Amino acid sequence: MKKWIKKKWRWLYFKIVREKASPEYIARGWAIGMFYGCLIPFGFQLLCSIPTAFVLKGSKIGASLGTLLTNHFTIFLIYPLQCWVGNRIIGGDLSYKACCDALKNVLEQQNYQSLAALGGELAAAFFIGGALLTLVMTPLTYYFVKILATRFKSRKKRNWQHKVPASPEHII
Fold first, then answer.
1. Could you tell me if residue 147 is left (phi over 0), alpha (psi between -120 and 50 degrees) or otherwise beta?
2. What is the pTM of this model?
3. C-beta contacts of 8-12 below 8 A and 24+ residues apart
4. For the CA atoms of the chain, what is the radius of gyration?
5. What pLDDT, on the 0 to 100 scale, is given for residue 78?
6. How far apart (Å, rounded) are the C-alpha atoms in residues 56 and 43?
7. Are the beta carbons of 150 and 23 closer than 8 angstroms?
8. Are the beta carbons of 28 and 142 closer than 8 angstroms?
């Protein structure tokens, strides 16, 4: 299991840094993906992130993969926590367990009737909690990815310069 996780992290790292673009372009795409991954409900994120990446000139790969913060495995933790935090911000009294139970019903039934049964308070809590998560995660993602890409590109350039002769006299 540990090897598998390490392999996946390595894959993700190289997916981030090997894109042939500036670090700012790469980071902008990942930040766009993270923005929609935190704010928009699962399933609609790609519909928003890809066009936004075109408009804001960000990495389309990063915008796509950045939305994967919320996926089939993590939404069972992130969405109830997001709703609970949002509910606390608006002054509600829902418990974490109540948020989990309500969202579990939506995830099990996967229809609009169960979504509508959540009510306005929980929907508002979802988006307010998502906005808070977005405010934290988007800038962190941008700067973290920019640092990773910048370091990788400078290391790659430094290694390439060591392999190439400094002047044409070495060729003769």
1. alpha
2. 0.77
3. 12/65
4. 21
5. 86
6. 22
7. yes
8. yes
Largest Cα–Cα separation, the chain: 79
Coil vs helix vs strand at 172? coil
pLDDT in tens, 2-15: 788 788 777 777 77
Q: Say whether pLDDT at 107 is over 70.
A: yes
Q: Please, is 130 exposed, middle or buried when counting C-beta atoms within 10 Å of its C-beta (0-12, 13-18, 19+)? A: buried
Q: Please give the structure tokens belonging to residue 163.
A: 């392999």
- Helix, strand or coil for residue 59? coil
The dihedral through the CA atoms of 31, 36, 39, 42 has a sign that is: negative
Rounded CA separation 82/126 (Å): 6
User: pLDDT by residue (tens digit) across 128-167?
Assistant: 999 999 999 999 999 999 998 888 877 766 666 666 555 5
**Exposure on the CB side of residue 3, measured as CA atoms within 13 A:** 0
Q: Which residue has the tokens 């070495």?
A: 170
